[in-house]
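User: Design a sequence. Structure:
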């Protein structure tokens, strides 16, 4: 007797996450898992015609910041618009648990400063129906999502919870402090955390400019917490660091892995101040893995860049006194002022004033700033910078920037790639992506809501690296799909997903590969308290499927919310017989 399937995807070209060559087959789904692959005779309760389309595993984004959004929203957009079916949050040492009631505002200000999520949004949105980290997991477990969610124990929250003001002020942890943090870390892993994260970068500051509580944490403290994970026998370590002293810093990370036995990943980018440092770190990474350690670098497939605009957190005139006169007016009124010839002339004649935060050298760096068009290009040539374009058009860069931002009633945007673009190309990103010991990451989905919009990484990774790149080598489609499905899932211990094989979780994408197109970023005002956020969508996702349920059709949510909290690492499935 023929079996009836919940869903059958028919006639697609499977890019199955293993790195193998694509092949045509049907996929049958039953009870949230892939049940059969091949020529499927029996009908499904639902069917998707995938002829002429590719079918991939759902993308696994291991570096997001939906820690707040997941407590008030079931849709993890923008990530879910880009084929992502699993997100990992709690990165960079910031999050909201554990947290005592008197520290709510402290952690909100830290998240506001580090991840550019406004204080009113978090104050209104967070329900705070938890104190301990296990309580936070229980709160998430009661909710349903359009993706699966895994989370990590954030060091800043842990440190403040144990040490109070001493922790926030970056005082050294005592042996008793370290013992307490290790015990809580062990408990968090046992409750279902995927790992522990920390930040050691000066770029991460509270909204009032103070460094993150974890900046100067000692090796003893970090090792003690890692040993807490070791005592639980589970959990990965995630680090972000300036690597100001790269040899010493990497050696410390290696010692932590050697002592704890826990896998570790760290953020790796090309820093324009040390443009070749990434090569040294990759060499040390290879040496560590050759020695039997499990260490990975999380890398980005395009520049990490700031968006400037009149609706956004900053623009090239943010430090001008004249712009300050209108900065708090509604957008339409600001546009009217900026189009007034007298106001415009006064603004353009004025020198910016130095203010805390982003420096003028960055927000008016015309030599590396580009126009953000309707068809985003993240590997533009130097001839397309505002400096060169303005000269060719006989105007100043300031005039060109202002005119572009005034387009579309004040919604035009500028783009400044400040990491991974010191060479004026993405050749370093290609080398990083193509390295044995790296995985795609760093999208920061859910964060930087007024400055950065990189939750679309999975789409641009596909379109740019496998299809559209013209300025250098490409990656094969099967390699890129493997990187952001199987490889990312394995990196955080999610062994039940990332492959199209019988028994694996039925998290899948049906994609019109030829028509896959990334749209320009735009602004939505849909956060709590009417908060603003950057969003970016794509055309070409025919269907996204989570646990066998169709969550998106043609880029629009279906209303299905089959996603759940993942409690800890997930074991690989026992293969079931194909039909």
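Assistant: Done.
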């Amino acid at each position: 007797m023929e079996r009836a399937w919940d869903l059958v995807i028919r006639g697609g070209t499977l890019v199955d996450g293993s790195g193998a060559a694509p092949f045509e087959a049907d996929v049958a789904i039953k009870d949230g898992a892939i049940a059969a692959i091949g020529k499927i005779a029996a009908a499904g309760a639902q069917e998707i015609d995938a002829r002429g389309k590719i079918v991939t595993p759902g993308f696994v984004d291991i570096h997001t910041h939906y820690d707040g959004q997941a407590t008030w929203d079931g849709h993890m957009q923008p990530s879910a618009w880009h084929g992502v079916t699993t997100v990992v949050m709690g990165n960079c040492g910031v999050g909201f648990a554990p947290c005592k009631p008197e520290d709510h505002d402290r952690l909100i200000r830290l998240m506001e400063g580090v991840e550019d999520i406004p204080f009113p949004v978090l104050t209104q949105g967070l329900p705070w129906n938890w104190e301990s980290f296990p309580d936070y997991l229980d709160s998430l477990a009661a909710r349903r999502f359009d993706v699966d969610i895994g989370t990590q124990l954030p060091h800043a929250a842990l440190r403040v919870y144990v040490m109070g003001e001493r922790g926030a002020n970056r005082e050294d942890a005592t042996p008793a402090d370290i013992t307490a943090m290790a015990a809580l870390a062990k408990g968090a892993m046992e409750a279902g955390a995927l790992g522990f994260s920390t930040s050691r970068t000066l770029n991460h500051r509270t909204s009032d400019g103070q460094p993150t509580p974890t900046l100067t944490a000692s090796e003893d403290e970090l090792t003690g917490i890692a040993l807490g994970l070791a005592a639980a026998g589970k959990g990965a370590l995630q680090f972000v660091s300036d690597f100001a002293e790269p040899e010493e810093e990497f050696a410390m990370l290696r010692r932590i892995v050697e002592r704890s036995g826990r896998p570790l990943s760290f953020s790796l980018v090309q820093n324009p101040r040390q443009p070749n440092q990434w090569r040294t770190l990759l060499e040390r990474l290879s040496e560590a893995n050759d020695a039997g350690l499990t260490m990975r670098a999380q890398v980005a497939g395009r520049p990490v860049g700031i968006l400037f605009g009149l609706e956004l957190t900053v623009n090239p005139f943010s430090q001008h006194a004249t712009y300050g006169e209108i900065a708090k007016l509604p957008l339409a009124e600001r546009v009217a002022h900026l189009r007034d010839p007298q106001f415009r002339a006064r603004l353009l004649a004025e020198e910016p004033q130095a203010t805390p935060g982003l420096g003028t050298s960055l927000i008016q760096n015309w030599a590396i700033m580009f126009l953000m068009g309707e068809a985003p290009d993240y590997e533009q040539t130097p001839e397309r910078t505002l400096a060169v374009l303005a000269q060719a058009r006989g105007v100043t860069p300031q005039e060109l920037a202002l005119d572009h931002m005034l387009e579309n009633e004040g919604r035009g945007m500028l783009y400044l790639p400040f990491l991974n673009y010191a060479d004026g190309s993405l050749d370093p990103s290609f080398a990083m992506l193509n390295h044995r010991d790296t995985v795609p990451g760093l999208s920061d989905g859910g964060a930087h809501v007024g400055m950065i919009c990189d939750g679309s990484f999975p789409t641009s990774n596909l379109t740019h690296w496998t299809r559209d790149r013209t300025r250098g080598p490409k990656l094969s489609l099967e390699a890129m799909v493997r990187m952001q499905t199987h490889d990312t899932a394995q990196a955080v211990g999610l062994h039940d997903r990332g492959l199209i094989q019988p028994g694996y979780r039925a998290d899948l994408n049906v994609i019109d590969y030829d028509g896959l197109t990334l749209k320009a970023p735009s602004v939505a005002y849909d956060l709590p308290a009417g908060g603003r956020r950057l969003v970016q969508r794509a055309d070409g996702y025919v269907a996204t499927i989570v646990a066998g349920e169709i969550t998106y059709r043609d880029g629009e949510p279906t209303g299905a919310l089959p996603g759940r909290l993942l409690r800890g690492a997930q074991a690989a499935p026992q293969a079931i017989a194909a039909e």
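The chain has a mean pLDDT of 96. The radius of gyration is 24 Å.
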